[in-house]
Amino acid sequence: MVIILKAIMISGRTLGQGATCEAKMSPEFFKATSTCALAESDYDALGIPKDGNVLVRTRSGEVVVSAKREGGIPPGLIFMPMGPWANAVVGPKTGGCGTPLYKGVEVEVTGTDRRVKGVRELFADLETEGQR
After folding, report:
1. DSSP labels for 37-75?
2. Is the pLDDT of residue 85 over 70?
3. CA atoms within 13 A on the CB side of 81
4. Extents of the domains making up the chain
5. pTM of the predicted protein model
6. 3-class SS at 90?
7. Phi–psi pair at 39, nearest 5 degrees
8. How far apart are CA 50 and CA 58, in angstroms?
């Protein structure tokens, strides 16, 4: 049985993301931005193994990221650092301000055995989806 967590996603800058943003193709940037932090109780409820991955899905798309257990996050909320993986699910609407809405995004999260795609592979898939 697949367990689906309905949650609210917020995205923002992190120290790791900021320190690596000048080298967006580097392994350090990948590690800093291809993650999803969840409340400990949500992590446990999803049955995610240590160093496991989750599929984050919105109306705009889906992406696989590594899951992190985070004690300071309340249940029902997830945090993804700004970057290509968060951008894949944020959506194109900007509300007239020119910047997508990185806060308050409704998501569904499930544990998955799928691997996290590298940035080049992620962009190639997004381009293919955009051509449909």
Report:
1. EEEHHHHHHHTPPTT-EEEEE-SS-EEEEEEEEETTSPT
2. yes
3. 21
4. 5-130
5. 0.84
6. helix
7. -60, 145
8. 24
